Amino acid sequence: MWDKIKDFSSEFFVTGDPLILGAQVSIAITMVAIVFVLTYFKKWRWLWTEWLTSVDHKKIGIMYIIASILMLFRGGVDALLMRMQLAAPQLEFLNAEHYNQIFTTHGVIMILFMAMPLMFGLFNIVVPLQIGARDVAFPFLNSLSFWMFFFGAMLFNMSFVIGGSPDAGWLAYPPLSGLSGSPGVGQDFYIWGIQISGIGSLATGINFIVTILKMRAPGMKLMKMPMFTWSVLSSCTTIIFAFPILTVTLFLLFLDRYMGAHFFTLDGGGNPMMYINLIWMWGHPEVYIVILPAFGIFSEIVSAFSKKKLFGYKSMVFALMSISFFSFFTWAHHFFTMGTGANVNAFFAVTTMLIAIPTGVKVFNWLFTMYRGKLSFPTPMMWTVAFIPCFVIGGMTGVLLSVAPADFQFHNSYFLIAHFHQVLIGGVVFGYFAGLYYWWPKMFGFKLHEGLGKWAFWFWNIGFYVCFMPQYALGLMGMTRRFNEYNFDMGWQPLNVVSTVGGFLMGIAFLFQVWQIAHSIKFYKKEKTGDTWDGRTLEWSIPSPAPMYNFARTPIVTEQDDWWEKKQRRLRGEADAPEVVQAEQAPLEPIHMPRNSGVPFVMSAFWFTAGFGFVWDWKWMIVLGLGGVIVTMLVRSFTYNTDYYIPVEEIERTEAAARGAH
Amino acid sequence: MANHNAHTEHGDHGGHEGGHGSMKSYVIGFLLSIVLTIIPLVAVMNDMFSKQVTTVIILIMAILQFAVQLLFFMHIRDEKKPRYNLISLIFGLVIMLTIVAGSIWIMTYNAVAT
Amino acid sequence: MAEAIKQKGHLAHAGHGSHDSGDHGHGHDHHDQEEMKTFGFWLFLITDVILFGVLFATYVVLRNNTAGGPLGSELIEMPGIIASTFILLTSSFTSGIALLEMNKGNKKGLITWLIITALLGASFIYLEVNEFIHLVHEGANIGTSAYWSAFFTLVGTHGLHVSLGLVWMTVLIVQIRRRGITPVTKRKVNIVSLYWHFLDVVWIFVFTIVYLMGVM
Fold it and tell me: What are the TM regions of this chain, as residue ranges (chain B) (predicted)?
């Protein structure tokens, strides 16, 4: 009996590595500590009723952001471990297997469990407020999306201490990721973690498209929408067409591993190239999915801090929508070296170059918006300004890579690594940071400390260039990705050391941000106006943080940047349009709101159970998990009492409290 | 919120449901779909044409069949403006065709030994 | 105003002040609610189009990769396939009639036609399961070769969709019996019927590309 338990646990838990042992111990201690704190302060009920079951888009958004910052920490630690290994490969700080696992989890976590949830968090917080809605179109589904993401991410992260991490790269190419190349459970954690959270992403995509198309405040025509909302629409459009591809591709890989199918195997007529073809049909649009909202954020911020209307609104809309369409026509540039022949490569090289054009249009729009504006440079604007040169360089190297014959030289080298980190950090991360700083007061009712934010900003930026510029050179010197060792006589070590220093500078920057948040909470200063930055769009017309029903009265929109124009009109002493006046003086009405529900949490927990069962091939657990999923779906289907009214008196109380704070 | 917008953008609004689709259109649709199934079946089972011609015929029949379902059963025509359903469907079909055609094109050069 | 209701089913309409604008009453919201859900479901169907598109692409790319194993044309038996095709076509038609009955407000007719549709769907599944059993007996399963992997996955995914539709219809019939024809149940019937037509369309392409072109 004892031996059996010992055998089982040696297979079940990852053993034999001091780093991982440390992680296991600290995870266990953290969990005990969380349980203790919640119990000691009697917060379990609060956690359940206020957060876990909440269908409020603002709370869901905050949960997304907290989760993504934790994931940023983990992905960042992975990155620093890799940089330490590469600075001194002779020391063998990480062995090959461990190194493979770390670059795999770094990639997956940063894209799918950091960038995506941070993006969804901003969607959730901002979009309904910007369009004057009381929530998203399907609040229940929204909560379900979050929990699917959360449990998927947990399942994936678990592989670190239980069973072993996946180690076949972030896109898990077969045959390496097939049963022959990866017999362990790590790859199964990969499949199920991504699959479960992917369902959530798909649902979010649908949810926000419907929200934006159907729930805008009266008068807000499509061409009067704030640019961030446009970018969310284009990103979500891309999501709903791209994510099903990922779902199917991973499902086929699962069938290969679990049922002995022969889609991507080397025997039985399978074709691993087909996997690469399919995964990039999702993978390429995916990078646009995460970058488009960043473009939207920059547009909002540039216009707000230049005190000018966005230059070239229509061309911006056109650029966003055309990128989301053309992103589906460039996927083969990720495998020019597959040997697909000149025609295919030429076609995809041209489409790749074409898609750079709308992006270039946007850069000019931002520059012209700033031109002759009344500029100010608080942290959100600093990130925006830093983004422009960084993204332009990243974009240019991308165009270099798109030249198919040259790509045979660059392919899988550090040149490529430097390129995509430059667009993903310089574009996505900078963008989301800018968005976080910009909308933070709207979320929590206080501003983040500017001084510490500037320290973080400079550490991030300098660290970034110190880290990645040498990698372009390393790539041209012949260093390829995914090696944990190189010989000293290759001459790569000095630049690698520089790059590692840059990595740690960014690590310090992250610490500054943590400090900044802690400091701002400790010296909490209530943001009284609700309009922190003298903003332009509807979210700044209501108190910060927004009351649970967002708008006591549905706003009437008459033009683009409606809130700004209204403020200007009032400054000039002009009157609002009669319908606006009428709407603002109308008596309050009870507000119809969705009820909280525990079903999303429970259903996602069952998905997690099923996924865990599939990973270990424990039939009873699969049945339990899938059975639970079906039962919770039925429970939901038969629940008809899903909403309630907020009475007028309560709205009045809330509004009076918010006004009293003015 | 939504409804206001709906008002401004398409005057009055009505959803998908209700008010359209008659017995007649369902019967016509059904008969058409039967005919469009029988034609390719006969063409293939009796080897009436060369392989290429048959392929073209049966694919065209399938596409027509799709159109019949869309028009007579799913009432795509009855949608009020703005036609988000139709727009999203067209976009989806374009992407779907890209996936299929692109895969075929790319993988032609990467076929493995059967 | 109460436009922000996003959740299905709401009971109390009473007790609220009327709107000055008049036409945005609660019944109206409701209509929007259900319209939004129908649109959301339509978008879901489009994602399903992509899903099947990828499966078709995989099937077409791997159609010749039989690795020396049996070919599709050797094992597929067309009579059963033809029967199931006509069954599914008919069920698409009957689900349309159910919709007409619903619009007339005829609860009994609605339930009857839904049951007929579900029975036709069940016989389709029965035939498909039989076909699969036959194929496995003949020595073709999901692990036989890339061709058969793609075949079983494509056809099986469609079958799974139909089976889910059956469960859904059953649940819906229970709800209609309990609650009658309300805006909520109406919307549910509408989307299940959209789903059903959609599966019919997918089957037409399975029939054409997998079966007809397979035996050619």
Answer: 26-44, 56-74, 86-107
Instruction: Check whether residue A195 and residue A257 sit in a common domain.
Output: yes
- pLDDT tens digits for range A620-630: 999 999 999 99
pLDDT of residue C109: 94
For residues B73 and B85, membership in a common domain is answered with no
Apex A285 CA angle, A279 and A289, nearest 5: 130
Domain containing B26 equals 21-78
Interchain pair C50, A214: CB under 8 A? no
User: C164: domain range?
Assistant: 43-213
Domain assignment present for residue C29? The answer is no
Model-level pTM greater than 0.95?
Answer: no
Average pLDDT score over chain A: 92
Q: Is residue B11 domain-resident? A: no
Place of tokens 């701002």: A520
Q: Which residues of A touch C11 (CB under 8 A)?
A: 640-641
Instruction: Tell me the C-alpha distance between A128 and A226, whole Å.
Output: 11
Q: How many C-beta atoms surround the C-beta of residue C141 within 10 A?
A: 17
Q: Which two tokens stand for residue B17?
A: 């449901």
The verdict on A526 and A635 lying in the same domain is no
Q: Is residue B44 situated within a structural domain?
A: yes
pLDDT digits (tens, 9 = 90+) for C36-74: 999 999 999 999 999 999 999 999 999 999 988 898 888
- Chain A residues with CB-CB distance to C143 below 8 A: 259-262, 268
Contacts of A621 (CB under 8 A, 6+ apart): A609, A610, A612, A613
Does some domain include residue A184?
yes
Considering the domain architecture, whether residues A604 and A546 belong to the same structural domain is answered as: no
Q: Which of C2, C9, C36 sits opposite A642 (nearest CB)?
A: C9
Asked whether the beta carbons of A271 and B112 are under 8 A apart, the reply is yes
pLDDT interval class at A583 (50, 70, 90): confident
Residues B87 and B61 in one domain: no
Name every chain B residue with its beta carbon within 8 A of the beta carbon of A215.
1-2, 5
A502 touches A514 (CB < 8 A) = no
* Residue A538 sits in the same domain as residue A621: no
CATH number for the domain that contains residue C197: 1.20.120.80
pLDDT at residue number C29 = 56
Chain A residues in contact with B95 by the CB 8 A cut-off are 241, 328
What is d(CA C102, CA C106) in angstroms, rounded to the nearest whole number?
6
Contact C16, A588 (CB under 8 A): no
The verdict on A523 and A609 lying in the same domain is no
B50 contacts: CB under 8 Å, gap ≥ 6? none
Q: What is the DSSP string of C34-94?
A: HHHHHHHHHHHHHHHHHHHHHHHHHHHHTTT--TTS--HHHH--HHHHHHHHHHHHHHHHH
- Is A128 contained in some domain? yes
Chains in contact with chain C (at least 3 beta-carbon pairs closer than 8 A): A, B
- Read off the DSSP letter of residue C18: P
Together in a domain, A425 and A335: yes
Q: Is residue C128 part of a domain?
A: yes
- Structurally, how many domains does chain A consist of? 2
State which residues form the domain around A613.
598-641
Cβ–Cβ of B107/A270 closer than 8 Å?
no
Residue A278 within a domain: yes
Is A1 within the bounds of a domain? no
Q: Is C160 exposed, middle or buried (0-12, 13-18, 19+ CB in 10 A)?
A: exposed
Q: Do residues B62 and B100 both lie within one domain?
A: no
Q: Which residues contact A270 (CB under 8 A, 6 or more apart)?
A: A256, A262, A263, A264, B112, C62, C65, C146, C149
What letter would DSSP give residue A341? -
Q: How many CB pairs under 8 A join A and C?
A: 169
C-alpha neighbours within 13 Å on the C-beta side of residue C110: 27
Q: For residue A213, what are the CA distances in angstroms to A175, A282, A349, B80?
A: 43, 24, 34, 14
Query: Using an 8 Å Cβ cutoff, are C63 and C147 in contact?
Result: yes
d(CA A167, CA A94) in angstroms, rounded, equals 13
